[in-house]
Amino acid sequence: MRLGESAEPVESYDMVVGGKPNFNGNGAVRSVDDYLLQASVDGTSWDNLNETNGYKQIGANYQWFFGGNEYNKNGGDAATHTTGKTITSRPASQPTLLDNAGYVSVAPNATLKALVDDVTIAKIRVSVSGAGMIDNFRFVADNGMIDVTDIPAGARDFTLPLSFANVTETDIANLSRWKLTLNGNDTSSWSKSIAPDGTIRLMKKGLIVVFR
């Protein structure tokens, strides 16, 4: 189940078993016993909201079931069911590492912005034909990767169109140590330089004189 962007925070939940009890061959009632409820903000990393073991078996029709207690719809205690089981923990507002998402790329004129200060990127993919901005992300110190695609034939020196905002000196230093690949392949024929504002320049290895 996916909630909409404007949905209110979920505070609690219920489970209900409807219909007559279903007995197995041993005469025991089939019902909820152990379960784990999880949630995700990105569909990749999941956080536990509730984990419950050893729920009581359900033995009546249309049974509300939460907090280890039964509430029979046909019994006198049904009216006491006013709130669901409280969610005991919540996922972080954002994941802390975008590694599971693979390479991060931003379309031209678009901005990928982190709303908190500790979201880290480990892999970036940039098309020479166009890219957008990465705002307020941190960059891993080790084993980071920059993959460049769509390099024009015969090119020897060019600046990547990707830009950065709200980056620190540490971020730039980390980015400068990242491995460079071209179209996903290792390369030894290109080198990169990174300016203090994060501007990335690629140069074909050989004798290059740069005037500033």
Summarize this structure as a short list of keywords or feature phrases.
212 residues; mainly beta; four-stranded mixed beta sheet; 1 helix; 19 strands; 4% helix; 32% strand
What does this structure look like?
- This protein has 212 residues and is mostly beta strands.
- The protein folds into two domains: 12-86, no CATH class; 111-204, no CATH class.
- Helices cover 4% and strands 32% of the residues.
- It has one helix at residues 169-176; strands at 12-13, 15-17, 35-39, 47-52, 63-66, 69-72, 85-86, 111-113, 120-121, 123-127, 133-135, 138-139, 145-149, 157-159, 163-165, 179-182, 185-186, 190-194, 200-204.
- Strands 10-13-16-17 form a four-stranded mixed sheet, with no helix packed on it.
- Strand 16 (179-182) and strand 17 form a beta hairpin.
- Mean pLDDT is 75; it is low at 56-62.
List the helices and strands and how they pair.
Layout: E1 12-13, E2 15-17, E3 35-39, E4 47-52, E5 63-66, E6 69-72, E7 85-86, E8 111-113, E9 120-121, E10 123-127, E11 133-135, E12 138-139, E13 145-149, E14 157-159, E15 163-165, H1 169-176, E16 179-182, E17 185-186, E18 190-194, E19 200-204
Mean pLDDT: 75
**Compute the gyration radius: what is it?**
27 Å
Strand line-up across the major sheet? 10-13-16-17
Number of strand elements: 19
Q: N-to-C terminal Cα separation, in Å?
A: 55 Å
Q: Which sequence of SSEs, written as H and E, runs from N to C?
A: EEEEEEEEEEEEEEEHEEEE
Major β-sheet, in short?
4 strands, mixed
Overall structural domain count: 2
SS-based class:
mainly beta
Helix content: under 10%
Count of DSSP-assigned helices: 1
Low-confidence stretches: 56-62
β-strand percent reads: 25-35%
Multimerization status: single chain
| Mass-distribution shape | elongated
